[in-house]
């Protein structure tokens, strides 16, 4: 009797594993306008396609990226692509239907946010907390009403922190793409206990159209 019982037991384990949330989020790109919570001037900058990360049939995140991201210079290489973005540049927007955790493992409250590019400060407080210094700082759509309304790092951090009433901004980690091949966007696991979506966005550097390839980490934690 042990043979049949064992077979049934492992079959049940297989079914449980397949239905487990540990399987992760699924990726979908769909035609969808950016949320009305965003100011019209910001919505006008965004693509009319949403990059969705689905938990079952429900979105865990919905991203809208800029139609074109201005760069300071043409990326020297894939590994250095994010260095070409000016700090505080608007990258896009994100809708978070239910509360999540950000890269600091702090609460990311449900809501609609703009996303701005930032670099982690090189001071003793942040030493060794992240593999890369690149971040998307999230700001509540209620507090960010112009595409170029936030122009310095200090204001960006302060405004983001107001979104949840703390001293720290809401951040998602950005990192260079681990590879350039294949269709994008696509899901990836770029480091242990990290999950990301690899993106290729239209950009312009010195008047020349080009593209920016990088990864946005939606699951993972900074070291503390």
Task: Give your account of this protein's structure.
- This protein is mostly beta strands and 224 residues long.
- The chain has one domain (24-219).
- 14% of the residues lie in helices and 39% in strands.
- It has three helices and 13 strands.
- The protein has helices at residues 2-19, 40-43, 153-162; strands spanning 26-31, 49-55, 58-65, 69-70, 90-96, 100-101, 107-108, 111-119, 134-140, 170-176, 186-191, 194-205, 208-219.
- Strands 1, 2, 3, 4, 5, 8, 9, 10, 11, 12 and 13 form an eleven-stranded mixed beta sheet that branches. Strands 6-7 form a two-stranded antiparallel sheet.
- β2 and β3 (58-65) form a beta hairpin.
- It is globular and about 40 Å long.
Can you lay out the helices and strands and say which pair or pack?
Layout: H1 2-19, E1 26-31, H2 40-43, E2 49-55, E3 58-65, E4 69-70, E5 90-96, E6 100-101, E7 107-108, E8 111-119, E9 134-140, H3 153-162, E10 170-176, E11 186-191, E12 194-205, E13 208-219
Produce a short descriptive summary.
The protein has 224 residues and is mainly beta. 14% of the residues lie in helices and 39% in strands.
Q: What assembly state would you assign to the polypeptide chains in this entry?
A: single chain
Shape: globular
Order of helices and strands: HEHEEEEEEEEHEEEE
How many helical stretches? 3
Summarize the main sheet: 11 strands, mixed
Radius of gyration: 19 Å
Strand content: 35-45%
């Amino acid at each position: 009797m042990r043979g049949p019982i064992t077979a049934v037991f492992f079959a049940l384990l297989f079914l449980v594993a397949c239905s487990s949330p540990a399987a992760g989020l699924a990726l979908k790109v769909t035609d969808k306008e950016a949320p009305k919570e965003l100011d019209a001037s910001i919505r006008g900058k965004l693509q009319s396609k949403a990059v969705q990360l689905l938990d079952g049939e429900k979105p865990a995140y919905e991203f809208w990226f800029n139609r074109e991201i201005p760069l300071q210079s043409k990326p020297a290489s894939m590994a250095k692509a994010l260095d070409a973005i000016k700090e505080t540049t608007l990258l896009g927007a994100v809708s978070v239907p239910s509360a999540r955790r950000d890269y600091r493992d702090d609460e990311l409250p449900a809501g609609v946010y703009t996303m701005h590019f930032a670099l982690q400060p090189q001071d003793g407080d942040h030493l060794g907390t992240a593999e890369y210094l690149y971040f998307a700082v999230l700001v509540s759509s209620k507090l960010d009403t112009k595409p170029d309304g936030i122009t310095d790092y200090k204001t960006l951090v302060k405004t983001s922190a107001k979104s949840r009433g703390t001293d720290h901004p809401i951040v998602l980690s950005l990192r260079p793409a681990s590879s350039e091949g294949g269709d994008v966007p696509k899901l990836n696991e770029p480091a242990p206990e990290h999950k990301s979506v690899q993106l290729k966005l239209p950009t312009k550097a010195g008047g020349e159209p080009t593209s920016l390839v990088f990864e946005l980490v939606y699951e993972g934690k900074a070291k503390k």
